[in-house]
Structures are given as structure tokens and as C-alpha cells.
Amino acid sequence: MSTHTIQEEIPGTVMFDGRMAMKGYALNKMCFSFNSAVNREAFRKDEEAYMESYGLNEQQKAAIRARNVLQLIDAGGNIYYLAKFAGIFGLSVQDVGAQQTGMTVEEFKEFLRKQGE
Prior knowledge:
Elements: H1 18-23, H2 25-33, H3 37-45, H4 47-53, H5 58-66, H6 69-74, H7 79-88, H8 93-101, H9 105-115
Helix pairs in contact: 2-7, 3-4, 8-9
């Protein structure tokens, strides 16, 4: 039995594997901290200091500043943890889906409606 992993590439998809988990560890740890209202407030009060306290790299900080979920995924973010971050700013699942597909939110909502037909 081979221990070689076969990984299919899906165009436009970042595979969250062990390498990405290591890359995004600090980012995901910070996003997990948002389970606490105190931590969410501390982040809102001074985002830069909060990011620094978790040791985010420049790519991760730039993605946080841009509120761009796709950039956060590329920086090693796991969507389950990133949902905590998105919630702070009132980003809905539709907002995130629109970013992921390159559609506007309204286009994405219409796309979802059509899937149910």
C-alpha cells in the first residue's frame, strides 16, 4: 500500500491540507479566539495590536484589513474559523459565497435561488 497522497486540483480552490494548516495556525488561532465576546471587543478596539499578539504575518494582516475571505483562505485560513471573523463584521454566508465565486451578493443570491428550481 502506498503512502503517497493523490491530490486532485480543483480550479480556484485552495486545498486546506497539513501545509496550509501550519501556514494558517496563528490566523486560525486568532479567529478561534473570537468565540469570546471579550476577545471580539479587544479586536475591534485595536485590530493591529490584536493581530500582532497572535503573530500574524503580513499576508494575513493585509487580508484581515481588506476583510477578504479569499485572501484569508490563501493565507492559510480555515473557513470554519474564518466564519468567526466574518461574523464580527456582519458578513453573511452569502457575502462569503459571493467573494468565493467572484459574483456580487445579489448575483450569488440569484444563483442560489436558481439551484432550487
